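Please fill in the sequence for the structure shown.

STRUCTURE ENCODING:
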């Protein structure tokens, strides 16, 4: 089954398979399947053409894939252009939602440090 150029895996349950489309998570997939009155555990190859058409119509009515990615990129660009705090955090590739950076976010920043102990040498006991 293909929707918007994305192949829904046949070996996964529909509830999980629909999440391979960018912008559709578990909650949205469940909502779509409930409206289509389709069992969550059904496989994509077991759908009737009517159910498949309904699911396709529901997904095409939402912002997913390229449109959603463009929207998110535009929002981030707007924040950078107005030089808001969140925009500058995005520009510097730092966490923008208040997370600490002393212990986390090290690999993104590029300076991977070694874990330090107390600074004292270990004395061997004999």
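FILLED IN BY: designer on duty
SEQUENCE:
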């Amino acid at each position: 089954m293909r929707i918007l150029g994305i192949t829904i895996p046949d070996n996964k349950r529909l509830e999980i398979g629909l999440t391979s489309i960018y912008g559709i998570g578990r909650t949205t997939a469940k909502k779509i399947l409930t409206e289509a009155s389709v069992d969550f555990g059904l496989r994509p190859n077991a759908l009737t053409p009517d159910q498949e058409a309904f699911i396709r119509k529901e997904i095409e009515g939402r912002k997913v894939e390229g449109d959603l990615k463009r929207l998110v990129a535009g929002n981030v660009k707007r924040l950078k252009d107005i030089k808001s705090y969140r925009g500058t955090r995005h520009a510097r590739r730092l966490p923008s939602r208040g997370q600490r950076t002393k212990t986390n976010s090290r690999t993104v920043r590029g300076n991977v440090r070694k874990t330090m102990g107390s600074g004292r040498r270990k004395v061997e006991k004999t």
